[in-house]
Write a structure and sequence with these properties.
It is a single chain. By secondary structure, the protein is an alpha/beta fold. Helices cover 32% and strands 22% of the residues. It is built from eleven helices and 13 strands. Helix 1 runs parallel beside helix 2 and helix 6 runs parallel beside helix 10. It is elongated.
């Protein structure tokens, strides 16, 4: 949503917008009006949840153009319907990952190579930046570098153009790179007949903050105790944005339908110095639920260049009745304050996938983990 009032001469404007990028909105609006950014005033409003989408200025530009067309300094408010928003939304890139790991005779990781294939968001959001970097898009490989001790390390990116309108999604690159990294760590641990928690702690010997959050999350969940009934634990870890976070999930699986149910999530997070305790906990809770919804439910279908989903009856979100209990423990440290808005998202999907493996011995390697994909994995 945005409101714009362009001056009668069309050379200046006032803008009220729920935007993550007020400076971007100012610069782009000035270009539209062929004037100086100094002549455009932006009043940022409460965001109400942006998650990367509201960093894009398209809805602001619509309001500016309509106000200019109306003339006479007429203010115009633009509100996208949910159908319009889904149809014109900016997608996060679809990516594919390959990780090759080398072990020595004692089972130690001596080599790690992570290749990411996908389209470049920077090519859409800031093509000049991509050109200046020589075609390097560091956002798509974000999170591939890790504090795990994996010996010789290499990651690279292969750009694949698909023509889909891209943007940034909550947790950016880390949201999918950790899905690959954390499953691979679990897979190596399983091949060595090692406990997934103990193995991570060993690989984080040089990162006491990382060890601490994993130990705390495991303690909260009573790892490695056997959950009641046909349930299993899974674990995930992330180390981006100068924040360490460990998550343990408890899931069940309907083997007839392929539906995964997340019952509990235990989260331990060290974001450095905590400035606002309640807000920090809320970000951990909200990010976790956001991540569960994305991991199990949310998908977009493109057909003949158009988005097929239009509202919440076909773009399915996690319902309140499906929401797990989330328990958060803050582990404040004296480190520089790190990020919190995105950190709870990356570990949750691999933790769920690792729990599925613990329960079934099968890996689900594609997001979202829809029932049909789970059933296919069980039959593989």
């Amino acid at each position: 949503m945005a409101t714009a009032r362009v001056s009668p001469d069309g050379k200046s404007a006032e803008i009220w917008a729920s935007t993550q990028g007020p400076t971007i909105a100012q610069i782009v609006s000035a270009k539209v009006l062929k004037t100086s950014p100094a002549n455009v005033t932006v009043y940022p409003q409460f965001l109400g949840g942006g998650f990367g989408r509201r960093a894009q200025p398209d809805f602001v530009v619509d309001a500016v153009l309509l106000s200019k067309i109306m003339g006479g300094g007429t203010p115009v408010k633009v509100i996208y319907s949910r159908e319009d928003d889904l149809a014109a939304g900016r997608m996060r890139p679809m990516t594919a990952h390959r990780i090759d790991v080398g072990l020595d005779k004692d089972g130690n990781i001596v080599g790690w190579k992570h290749r990411v294939v996908g389209e470049s968001p920077i090519a859409y959001t800031n093509p000049a930046r991509l050109k200046k970097s020589g075609g390097k898009d560091e956002t798509i490989t974000e999170g591939a570098a890790t504090f795990y001790d994996v010996g010789a390390f290499e990651f690279d990116y292969v750009r694949q153009d698909r023509g889909i309108n891209l943007g940034f999604w909550r947790s950016v690159g880390t949201g999918y790179t950790k899905f690959a990294v954390e499953q691979m760590i679990d897979e190596v641990a399983a091949s060595l007949d090692r406990d997934p928690l103990d193995y991570r702690l060993e690989l984080l010997a040089n990162d006491p903050r990382g060890q601490a959050v994993l130990k705390k999350a495991a303690e909260m969940a009573d790892w490695p105790g056997k959950p009641d009934g046909d349930r299993a634990f899974g674990i995930g870890f992330s180390d981006d944005w100068n924040t360490r976070i460990g998550e343990v999930v408890e899931i069940s699986l309907n083997r007839e339908t392929g539906e995964i149910r997340v019952h509990n999530v235990w989260v331990a997070v060290d974001p450095g110095v905590v400035v606002q305790r309640d807000a920090t906990i809320a970000q951990a809770e909200g990010g976790t639920i956001f991540g569960v919804s994305a991991a199990l439910k949310e998908k977009i279908t493109i057909k003949d260049g158009a988005v097929q989903e239009s509202n919440f009856y076909d773009y399915i979100l996690l319902r309140q009745s499906e929401t797990p209990k989330v328990t958060v423990e803050l582990m404040e440290s004296v480190d520089t304050p790190g990020g919190m808005g995105e950190v709870a998202v990356p570990p949750i999907a691999p933790a769920i996938a690792n729990a599925v493996y613990a329960l079934t011995g099968k890996r689900v390697r594609q997001l979202p983990m829809l029932p049909e994909r789970v059933l296919a994995a069980l039959k593989a």
